[in-house]
Amino acid sequence: MASLRFAKCFDPEGARFGIPTYPWRLAPEGLATRRQLRAEGLRPGGQPIAAQLLRPRFRREPLVAYLYRVDLAKPVRPMTSRKWGALALAMLARRTCPQCTTDAGYVIPASLGMCVPCAYPEEQRAA
Ligand SMILES: [Zn+2]
Fold first, then answer.
1. φ/ψ (deg, to 5) at 63
2. How many CA atoms lie within 13 A of 105 on its CB side?
3. What are the pLDDT digits (tens) for 56-110?
4. How many CB atoms neighbour CB 55 within 10 A?
5. What is the pLDDT of residue 56?
6. Whole-number Cα distances in Å, 54 to 5, 14, 118
7. Average of per-residue pLDDT across 38-46
């Protein structure tokens, strides 16, 4: 009885579930899941869940996806300068050789654990 199960998930007024409920893949225009928002570079931005999608599953709880209003969504927060600073510091730490404590100018290879001149002093002298 696919039609009956389908009907069970269709509750646009939210009379049964408390919030508007639609069958899976039948989200109304203007609503999107968090994942769909993210694909557009958007985030829910603190808005409440507008509706839910239900996908019935055999002998299991239905799968639920929450929907948010696209018009209330906000752009994904850009990185703050503080975060950039932390990232730059982390990058500098990764470029700094623990042996000679200088900025090697590249990320220290994990296999060496130090900059190339420190790892191969013999070759450097020969060159
Ligand atoms: Zn070094």
1. -75, 135
2. 2
3. 888 888 899 999 999 999 998 777 778 788 888 888 899 999 999 999 999 999 8
4. 13
5. 85
6. 10, 12, 60
7. 92
Q: Which two tokens stand for residue 85?
A: 């600073």
Query: When comparing pLDDT for 18 and 126, which is higher?
Result: 18
CB 9 within 8 A of CB 22: yes
Choose among 29, 27, 89, 38: nearest CA to 64.
27
DSSP 107: P
pTM over 0.70: no
How far away, in angstroms, is 88 Cα from ligand 1 center?
Answer: 20
Phi, psi dihedral angles at 7 (to 5 degrees): -60, -35
For residue 60, the CA-to-ligand 1 centroid distance in Å is 59
According to DSSP, the β-strands at 51-57 and 21-23 are: parallel
Please tell me the distance between residue 92's alpha carbon and the centre of ligand 1 in angstroms: 14
**2-5 contact pairs (CB < 8 A, 24+):** 5/56
Rounded (5°) CA angle 34-39-45: 45
C-alpha 96/C-alpha 87 separation (Å) is 14
CA terminus-to-terminus distance, the chain: 79
